[in-house]
Amino acid sequence: IPKKLVTTVSGCADDALAGLVACNPGLRLLQGHRVVLRDDLPAIRGRVALLSGGGSGHEPAHAGYIGKGMLTGVVAGAVFASPSVGSVLAAIRAVARAGAAGILLIVKNYTGDRLNFGLALERARAEGADVRMVVVGDDCAFATPGKAGRRGICGTVLIHKVAGALAEAGASLDEIVEKVTAAAKAMGTLGLSLSPCSIPGSKPSFQLAEDEMELGLGIHGEAGVRRMKVLPADKAVETMLEHMTDPSNASHIPLTPGECPNSLCSPKFPGFWSHPVPHPAGCSVVLVVNNLGGLSCLELGIVAGAAVRCLERRGTRIARALVGSFMTALEMAGVSLTLMLVDEELLGLIDAKTTAMAWPNVPTGPATTRREEVPAPMEAPGKLQDEPGTGLGAVRVQRVLERVCSTLLDMQEKLNELDRGAGDGDCGHTHARAAQAIREWMRSRPLPAAPSQLLSSLADVLLEKMGGSSGVLYGLFLTAAARSLRGRSDSPAWADAMDAGVDAMQRYGGAAPGDRTMLDSLWAATKALHSLRSPGADPLRVLAAAVQSAEAAAEATRHMEAGAGRASYIRSSRLEQPDPGAVAVAAVLGAVLK
């Protein structure tokens, strides 16, 4: 049974609602019932009240959509279970007594929800309440839906928004029913999952192999229409949209000319749209990319981008795009796509303001992958390029850099192995990327003549290509050293440059000597290079001493307590090897001396 972070299995639905209300001053619980209402019920006097609900486990649906401009209240059941008739009736009575000018129940098309909300509606009518019900079925999964009809899934949230905007504008109950019914017919949703979900205290509702995904499943883990091998995100999205818009699918969303739900274009969906004949070159839609609960935000963004690209290729204008968690299925790792055909009037209702906490702050503009990029600023002219050369021979520099690259490539696996004890085992790969980038850079252009220019250019290469914290730290070191060397190339200048580089690494990286990082080797070498400031110092001897100091410091990190970097999160008893960054620095310095 999967682990869940709940207090009790039996009380999880009540606890979730209590937490929501506790954190939102605009919400109130209805005493004795699993019902959440707007705090400002008197404000609905003379307006239509909107109630929705269903089983828990779909958060933020439905209570997250309570607020001015959306729902008046929500009735919740246990996890994946319809709410009771008594609680639905209690919610109806509460809004009726607040002076609502009619009550609309917005219900997803599931048998339990239809029965319980329907029976409560009949009892409320017997008490004199003016109550209507709209049943939403937006699932595009089944090409030939059975007697039960299309399931109600994430598109229901758009109906909440449309109905809420109409109610807030003072529309009558009849008008709201007519317009949301038409809107619901021009809408479709399809889900795709990589994993099952599990009710607290229970095993997963189904199983998927590691290399499988399921198309068209329901928000309670009900079976879909097809299991298939896991596809890349763009191919998966293309498969979903093809299924959703396939004219041979009786549940499809019509995006082709002649199928538009404008009563002037087609008698199929009468009553809402007003765009002119002939049918426009491309339909406008609202796109909802919905996280079914367990998908990462990174994956969701990839899916959203793929959906926009795919729709654009089809000539579909995406008037708005909503991306996030709107109607989930507990921890299911999956996504659903919803398309609603819109005209300007319907789009205005989607854009209307609401205080509902789960409705996103949607930018009022179309989604597109064709936005013009902001031009990157050019490097300031004359930054270092005009500095004259001051003595480093290009052939000698190239030879030194080639030795450094060969050394790093040769020790790639050694550095990876040292890194596995405290990091993610990629230190060798990171330094190998740096070596390959430097080689490509050397082949592509003449080497800068001035030392400061050389170091600055190397910093740019590493910052762009090396990656990881190491790339940034080397970039910091070289950038600061280059600045110190401007206009100089004498021996004391190199000692000053090393000091400047180490100071920059400490200032921004946060490490200090003795913290078991690459800084330990650099610090030791820097101290040794201070001898370059002495008159008559032999640079080669000083450099040899610096290399020895760096190698000794790298070996000494074996016995240090890590005070910075990833290794600082590991018990020192497990760090039985020297720090890979310190070893790499010592190796680089050694390659320079050879």
Automatic annotation (TrEMBL):
Its cofactor is Co(2+). It comes from the Eukaryota. It catalyses: FAD = riboflavin cyclic-4',5'-phosphate + AMP + H(+); dihydroxyacetone + ATP = dihydroxyacetone phosphate + ADP + H(+); D-glyceraldehyde + ATP = D-glyceraldehyde 3-phosphate + ADP + H(+). Residues 395-594 form the DhaL domain. Its EC number is 2.7.1.28, 2.7.1.29, 4.6.1.15. GO terms for biological process: glycerol catabolic process. One of its GO terms (cellular component) is cytosol. Residues 8-359 form the DhaK domain. The keyword Kinase applies. The keyword Metal-binding does not apply. SUPFAM superfamilies: DAK1/DegV-like, DhaL-like. Catalyzes both the phosphorylation of dihydroxyacetone and of glyceraldehyde, and the splitting of ribonucleoside diphosphate-X compounds among which FAD is the best substrate. Represses IFIH1-mediated cellular antiviral response. Homodimer. Interacts with IFIH1 (via the CARD domains), the interaction is inhibited by viral infection. This is Triokinase/FMN cyclase.
